[in-house]
Amino acid sequence: MTRRQLIAIAVLLLVACVLPQVVSDYRVFQFNLVLVYAIALLGLNMLTGYNGQISLGHGAFYAIGAYCAAILMDKYGVPYWATLPVAAAVCLVAGFLFGLPALRLEGLYLALATFALGVSLPSLLKYHHLEKWTGGVQGIVINKPEPPFGLPLSADHWLYYFTLAVAVLMFLLAWNMLRGRIGRALVAIRDQHIAAEAMGVNTAMVKSLAFGVSAMYTGIAGALGAIAIQYVAPDSFNIFLSLVFLIGIVIGGLASISGAIYGALFIQFVPNIADEISKAAPWAIFGVFLLGFVYLMPMGIAGAVRMGLARLQRKAQNK
Amino acid sequence: MEAFLHQVLAGLATGSIYASLALSLVMIYQATHLVNFAQGEMAMFATYFAWSLINAGMPYWPAFFLTVIFAFVLGVVIERTIIRPVENAPVLAVVVVFIALLVILNSVTGWIFSYTIKTFPSPFPEEPIFGRFVTSHQGGAIVITMVVLALLFLFFRFTPLGLAMRAAAQNPESARLVGIRVGWMLALGWGLAAAIGAVAGMMVAPIVYLDPNMMGGILLYAFAAALVGGIDNPAGAVFGGFLVGVLENVLGAFVIGNELKLAVALVLIVGVLVVKPSGFFGKVFVTRV
After folding, report:
1. If exposure means fewest CB atoms within 10 Å of the residue's CB, which of A5, A214, A268, B75 is most exposed?
2. What is the pLDDT of residues A180-192, one digit of tens each?
3. ipTM of predicted complex
4. What is the distance between the alpha carbons of residues B88 and B184, in angstroms, rounded to a whole number?
């Protein structure tokens, strides 16, 4: 990591810490969701960006994580922080299991299978034999956690800092994983899977594990999201949730860690602005941006930032 | 037994709609090896077009044919403007473009026509005309699908344009060498697929009602149908459509309940892809490494 990157990260963290003090409670809640989405996008980006396995159904893992947290808190009285490891473990296993048949599918076919998962998920959540746990169509309402140790913080602020800490941890883990041997194996499989195999990469294992870890990230995000929103219901996990994740990583930047943050900011705040035009406007804008990015800037915002910085550097050197 | 027969026939009726949509998926797949995730939304958009024509006072059948023409033009325009630039792009880029198309069509429809659910008329009379087991709309949908199929078969088998389109799909390089404009043949294929999709949309709208999200589940069944039949085989897609329709109805009514109907599609899609990716009638591809 270069000195400049370190400084940038320190500034970013500082801004993230100070942010709640300067904006309204509602904005704090929104930034909380940005962190949640950033974790989810990071998970999807590992799978789709780095490993090249297209998933149009990651909303399913987000939903599993959310329901894990909600059911544990509501039915078993588990404290909110303890639901995260459970959600992570459940999603890791679920993702790994879905990743096994996905091994036989490539490109378009995997997209199709995951699309089917995303579309059919709400009806699975409504299934009446599961109603005892899932609460059926009504879903589950959960309580907002109070700050511990009598800290002088509002519930929103506390949750924001809690999510921030989890997000920092998850990004650190992802950074460590992706820059090393595993990250190179992921990219090698994406670009030349036969060559990767010849080099001794266990393609099947790495691909299923990538699916599992990616699902784990998204599941943790789902649990954090459920705690923040205090409500889970089947219809909030429809196919458009999965699509919004895909939109987030494409616009943020494929195969880039910082892209997850840009993407999360985009999917959280653009609809807010667009909502003022019409209820349908956010999606129309998402679609148009998506087309624009695919045609003009396939590397997403992260790629554009990288290019811009490189250009500035060249200019500085030429002087 | 009577209830069972009733469900099977109802399944054949919805199956005919899945078959049409599956057929349009297969047409695009054959020509470009792409699976169009926006096929359902294109059909939905065309159905809204039909709805506004009928609402403006146009009789059903003129509106029907005008909509088919509109959908054809829409398909050609989309291929020429949006799909063309990513023709040879990596799969991810293409999938993203399809998704973009899906959300744009969905939201623009919601924007223009609002998200409130609308009723859509059926061209067939109220009283049953095909015997007591099927409603006349169900029977009519089957007949219309059969007519569309027959027309398509005649078009591809007996017209020079149909031959050119098949040539362009099978072997683009050679087709280009004998003077076929392959790019335009692809666009025509998209137009035809969109037109067939529009027919499916207008047939399904009286059953599921008109709303911007009406095609989500139907597209899934159509995917399942196309995969079961073999994604590169049109006749297989039609067979798959009927099979999926019957399976969905019978399983939904007697075995797993209506809530899990969509899961049937999910299991079929994943199952076929994993166990037998070429479906019942598809070509088996062997890749050399």
Report:
1. A5
2. 888 888 888 888 8
3. 0.88
4. 16
> If pLDDT is split at 50, 70 and 90, which confidence band does A52 have?
confident
Mean pLDDT over each residue of chain A, to the nearest integer? 86
Report the residue of chain A nearest B93, measured CA to CA. Answer: A294
Measured between CA atoms, the residue of chain A closest to residue B85 is A295
Q: Buried b / exposed e across A160-170, counting CB within 10 Å, b at 16+?
A: bbbbbebbeeb
Does the beta-carbon distance from B107 to A280 stay under 8 Å? yes
Number of A/B CB contacts below 8 angstroms equals: 139
pLDDT digits (tens, 9 = 90+) for B138-176: 888 888 888 988 898 899 889 999 899 888 888 888 999
Distance, CA of A227 to CA of A79 (rounded, Å): 11
A residues 10-29 closer than 8 Å to B (CB): none
Contact A58, A46 (CB under 8 A): no
Number of domains in chain A: 1
CB contact (8 A) between residue B99 and residue A104:
no
Cα dist from B26 to A318, B148, B226, B230, whole Å? 56, 15, 7, 9
* The token pair that represents A67 in the structure block: 């329901």
What pTM, to 2 d.p., does this model score? 0.89
Read off the pLDDT of residues A225-278 as tens digits, 9 standing for 90 and up.
Answer: 999 888 888 888 888 889 999 999 999 988 888 889 999 999 888 887 877 777
Which CATH fold topology does B2-275 show?
A: ABC transporter involved in vitamin B12 uptake, BtuC (1.10.3470)
Q: What angle separates helix A108-125 from helix A58-76, to the nearest 10 degrees?
A: 30
Place of tokens 């004998």: B178
pLDDT category at B287 given cuts 50, 70, 90 is low
Render the burial of B1-35: b for 16+ CB within 10 Å, e for the rest: eeeeeebbbbbbbbbbbbbbbbbbbbbbbbbbebb
Distance, CA of A101 to CA of A115 (rounded, Å):
15
CA distance A71 to A142: 9
Q: Which residues of B touch A111 (CB under 8 A)?
A: 35, 37, 91, 95
